[in-house]
Amino acid sequence: EDQVTQSPEALRLQEGESSSLNCSYTVSGLRGLFWYRQDPGKGPEFLFTLYSAGEEKEKERLKATLTKKESFLHITAPKPEDSATYLCAVQASVGYIPTFGRGTSLIVHP
Amino acid sequence: SQTIHQWPATLVQPVGSPLSLECTVEGTSNPNLYWYRQAAGRGLQLLFYSVGIGQISSEVPQNLSASRPQDRQFILSSKKLLLSDSGFYLCAGEQGNGNTIYFGEGSWLTVV
């Protein structure tokens, strides 16, 4: 059974204080790993897809990396508008139903 | 990219009343479609998924049902709502397998 564990559950940062969110996964062959941002009361917004170990993708202050067992979402010099819940999901190479983690709630204080 | 439309955005329904949440997809054909429920502080619970018209798979036995009458239309229904059906419902779509999954804006359901 595919599993995704995100840590920490909650993270409070000061504006400008860089940090990383972790997504550990077990899957029988990885087809893709997805990162989403979700604002309160809204649907998840797609950020990145990573397909193979060593791959990295960046968007503004966010950078996602992937190894064979985990993915990190690095947030550099965060701003209050980066406050949101960040979700990670994996899709196995067999089948197609994605497995989601419970998310990390990020609050960035000004 | 795909755009997922969901409606209504919010609704308050009495216990025992019926439910119909609708989801339509733009920008792709023959997508895989999903209905999720998200409880406060918890992850996404997969309710139903569909790989084509009339093809519905259920992940969790419950008071809800789903239908896919057209390629890009996915409907979540209930004949009689329970208090426990309250929550945030999300429709998602994916073009083929292994492609990006996009979400709608969600529907807040409160059963009173």
So what's the overall shape of chain B?
A: globular
Q: Please count the helical segments of chain A.
A: 0
What percentage of amino acids of chain A are in beta strands? over 45%
Number of domains of chain B: 1
Largest interface: A-B, 22 and 21 residues
Q: Tell me the overall shape of chain A.
A: globular
Strand content of chain B: over 45%
- In CATH, the homologous superfamily of chain A goes by the name Immunoglobulins
What class, by secondary structure content of chain A? mainly beta
Q: Low-confidence spans of chain A: pLDDT under 50, at least 5 residues?
A: none
The termini of chain B sit apart by: 37 Å
Summarize the helix and strand pattern of chain A as letters: EEEEEEEEEEE
Helix content of chain B: under 10%
Structure annotation, total helices of chain B: 0
What does this structure look like?
The complex is a heterodimer of chains A (110) and B (112). Chain A has 110 residues and is mainly β. Helix content of chain A is 0%, strand content 59%. In chain A, the strands form two sheets. In chain A, strands 2, 4, 5, 9, 10 and 11 form a six-stranded mixed beta sheet that branches. In chain A, strands 1-3-8-7-6 form a five-stranded antiparallel beta sheet, with no helix packed on it. Chain A is globular and about 45 Å long. The mean pLDDT of chain A is 95. Chain B has one domain: Immunoglobulins (Immunoglobulin-like). Chain B is globular, with a radius of gyration of 13 Å. Chain B is mainly beta and 112 residues long. Chains A and B meet through strand 4, strand 5 and strand 9 of A and strand 5, strand 9 and strand 10 of B.
Task: Tell me the layout of helices and strands.
The complex is a heterodimer of chains A (110) and B (112).
Chain A: E1 3-7, E2 10-14, E3 19-26, E4 30-38, E5 45-50, E6 56-59, E7 62-66, E8 70-75, E9 84-92, E10 99-100, E11 104-109
Parallel strand pairs in A: 2-11
Antiparallel strand pairs in A: 1-3, 3-8, 4-5, 4-9, 6-7, 7-8, 9-10, 9-11
Chain B: E1 3-7, E2 10-13, E3 19-26, E4 32-38, E5 44-52, E6 55-58, E7 65-70, E8 73-78, E9 87-94, E10 101-103, E11 107-111
